[in-house]
From TrEMBL:
This is Endoribonuclease YbeY. Belongs to the endoribonuclease YbeY family. The gene is ybeY. One of its GO terms (cellular component) is cytoplasm. Its cofactor is Zn(2+). It comes from Neisseria gonorrhoeae. InterPro entries: MetalPrtase_cat_dom_sf_prd, YbeY, YbeY_CS. The lineage of its organism: Bacteria, Pseudomonadati, Pseudomonadota, Betaproteobacteria, Neisseriales. Binds 1 zinc ion.
Length: 218
């Protein structure tokens, strides 16, 4: 759960991954527009405000659907930003380890890395109308942690997507007071999504509630 502040990340990212992935981008072609609406009916409103550039470059199995990552990230930022453009890439351990080593000097794969556009400059959420940044998630690490902590993979992926998005928004956990604020927001967002407190190490049913699948009214 780390933040890596680096403008050079974007240049290196697109050198490694030369394709440009644009998901949920409005199109002038009515046919494509209708196809998108049919495939992601619950994103009709959100996609006008939030673009998620998603790539699954991992060989891991049991990864949630693309739309799940969209909902989780959107739930974290929707009340703070008018527009947001986030890149989210799933990488296997070897490449995730390389990014962690290159940008943080730590030679191991971590669960999620956050790369904010504004290097070293954290602005209050309320003064910014746009959010730009990138997330790298390593599914192998996430799945291993979920098993060790007695959590479902879906719940842990949800938590880490929200956690990484909050980092992009300026939240951090280096200092105790900052960590308390960030943890409280994570708990609130996870509960709003129908998941247990992310700090609990086992999955506990919440009065039979199931995770929500529609974040429009969350």
């Amino acid at each position: 759960m780390e933040t890596a502040w680096s403008l050079s990340y974007f240049e290196r990212f697109f050198r490694r991954h030369r394709q440009v992935y644009v998901i949920f981008t409005p199109t002038k072609h009515e046919t494509r527009h209708n196809e998108t609406r049919q495939k992601y009916p619950f994103l009709t409103l959100q996609r006008q405000r939030f673009h998620l550039n998603f790539e699954n470059a991992s060989s891991a199995a049991g990864i949630p659907a693309e739309r799940d990552f969209y909902r989780w990230a959107w739930s974290a930022l929707k009340n703070e930003y008018l527009r947001a453009d986030i890149g989210l890439i799933l990488l296997d351990e070897e490449e995730a380890r390389a990014y962690n080593r290159d940008y943080r000097g730590k030679d191991y794969a971590t669960n999620v890395l956050s790369f904010a556009l504004n290097e070293g400059e954290i602005l209050p959420c309320q003064v910014s109308e746009r959010l730009y940044g990138d997330l790298i998630i390593c599914p192998q690490v996430v799945l291993k942690e979920a098993a060790e902590q007695g959590k479902t993979p879906e719940r842990h992926f949800a938590h880490l997507t929200i956690h990484g998005t909050l980092h992009l928004m300026g939240y951090d956990h280096i200092k105790d007071d900052e960590a308390e604020i960030m943890e409280a927001e994570e708990i609130r967002l996870m509960r709003a999504a129908g998941y247990p407190n992310p700090t609990e190490r086992t999955d506990i049913k919440m009065d039979g509630a199931q995770p929500k699948t529609n974040f429009l009214n969350a």
